[in-house]
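Reply to thread "Modeling small-molecule complexes from scratch"

Following up on the discussion above, here's a worked example others can learn from. I took a protein sequence and the SMILES for S-adenosylmethionine and predicted the complex. Inputs first:
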Amino acid sequence: MRLDIVTLFPAVCEGPLGASIIGRARERELVDLRLVDLRQYTHDRHRTVDEPPYGGGAGMVLKPEPLFEAMQDVAPPGAWRVLLTPQGVPFRQACARRLAALRHLVLVCGHYEGVDERARQALFDEELSIGDYVLTNGALAAAVVADAVIRLLPGVLGCEESSEDESFGRNGWLEYPQYTRPAEMQGMRVPEVLLSGDHEAIRAWRRQRSLARTAARRPGLIQGWDGDQ
Ligand SMILES: C[S@@+](CC[C@H](N)C(=O)[O-])C[C@H]1O[C@@H](n2cnc3c(N)ncnc32)[C@H](O)[C@@H]1O
């Protein structure tokens, strides 16, 4: 997959997308991730990317021209163009799976008060939000989406099964509790069944605990009304 992130702050994305599993996926060329500086598409002396809003009011708005030029450059026909905005559709695992199947994804980050409405309408196939809160900038949001998508690409996770077997995976539930060594910690013991070697019993225990945890924390996932998009 090719994945472009258009942002005023490439360094903000480079940190989280340069380490660990995602960093290794890039080294192994399982994803062609390009961090594109929006400012390179300005042509004035001050490299201006923002202007005050028409009609007055607080803050600045990202100008349309650099965005149009950037998209012309990085998003040929066929690329799927996503704007990060708190007004977008909530980003969920099902959406990550859908995006991971694309050949070319372009994520665009807003800043200040957001993006000129004409650019929003003309340039994007979809708007996504990573949650009901407001960040100063879209770079962290794009890094979140990119991480969730890249880890689903073939070969990125050590075991192909593991993304199916975790929260929001195969059945859409939350994952069961996990334990590791030692078997006892400050008087708290690992459930005996996990030490039993009885794979059928372990599978049944995990299913039951996954269901119980999901019912307690996110009942909507079981009823199917807040899991998919
Ligand atoms: C301060 S926000 C703009 C908020 C905008 N004025 C509004 O009220 O909808 C600046 C940029 O951060 C990004 N952003 C902030 N919160 C976000 C969220 N929850 N999900 C995705 N992107 C977000 C977007 O790219 C947005 O253009």
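What I'd highlight from this example: The chain has two domains: 2-150, 166-229. The mean pLDDT is 95. Questions welcome below.
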